[in-house]
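REQUEST ID: PR-0412
SUBMITTED BY: lab tech R.K.
PRIORITY: routine
TASK: structure prediction, single protein chain
INPUT:
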Amino acid sequence: MWEREHGYTRVDQHEWMRPRRGDWIARLEEVLLTQTGPAVLVAHSLGCHLVSAWAAHSSNTHLVKCAFLVAPADVERDEMRSVLPSWSPISTQALPFKSLLLASQNDPYCSFERSQALGSAWGSAFVDCGRSGHINAEAGLDVWPQGHAALQQLLQST
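STATUS: complete
OUTPUT:
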């Protein structure tokens, strides 16, 4: 929805049903290398782990101004390991750029405490979004103006 509302660009990944971390990292790197200015990464769920894994391996982190991370999934939960085998272990290295992590108290894909721990490990400022599910369309957030306002605040602070 933010693409449509605000003209943002999505990094199209080639395999959404069986995502492989290495392939996703390579694609993000490829897209960032084509940008003309500093990028702002906005990531949801598995995308949060992509940002973290990419930052831990890339020599081009200077291309990123900041990251807005929303509702990271816990890819190390038992039921997720078989679905997302290449995403474990989670990269827990601090991000080399400013970041903000927003999490819900009742996210079915990641406990609130785990989200807090990931935010701490990544060096992200943390926002408690209350009981907002997985902070997506199914949670009824529509274009999520509060989220976009938080993104704008992050941009103004960098």
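NOTES: The chain has six helices and four strands.
REVIEWED BY: pending
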